[in-house]
Fold this sequence. Notes:
The protein has 218 residues and is α+β, with helices and mostly antiparallel strands. It contains three helices and twelve strands.
Amino acid sequence: MATEKSLTQKVPSPFGREVKFRFVGGKSSGKEIPVIKETFFIGRSGNNNLVLDDRSVSRKHAVLNFIDGHFILSDLNSFKGTKINGEKIQEVELQNGDRIKMGDIVFEFIDGKPLQGKKGNKWLIWAVLFGSIVIVAGMIILSSKNKVADLGADLAREVEYNYSQGVRAFNANKDIESARSYWLRAKELDPDGSTSQGRNAAVLLKNLPSNTGGTNSR
């Protein structure tokens, strides 16, 4: 039989939410015991917060501590030990829905609303959804980067073409106006001087004569 010393009076939860144990199987099956203290002792003797009246349970079997927002269950060197979800533990952080066994007594830890369905399946679904979102987001980012890279390469080639054509017009044909036109186009395509051809075009434009018949004023 399971009892809780404070059930005779209404005590508000110190956690801001309902936290409790729910018994599974046996005479107390389905019974819920609220956790109303940040340090909560569990065992067979009457001075525990949760009294488990069963010879398989040690007098001071375990203690549940609320530390920095986490529920930590520690076995107090009990004779038969404490198991969480079938695994023997010495100390563990409890999660909503964990199944606890002390001696022959089995109960669940409920933190807030009870779980809907199996916890493992729930987390698996969330993991799959999260993984899918990450993959799709990565594909979108990669696609965007590729487009930017392609645009940058095309732009750089056009800047280089206009710069080279301007140099050819100026050196081979002494066609200052054609050179000016090409270099202006290169500067328009690369106004920040991101490429060496864009920077050179801007410098050459500053040093061009103002007209075909003039000379450099510098």
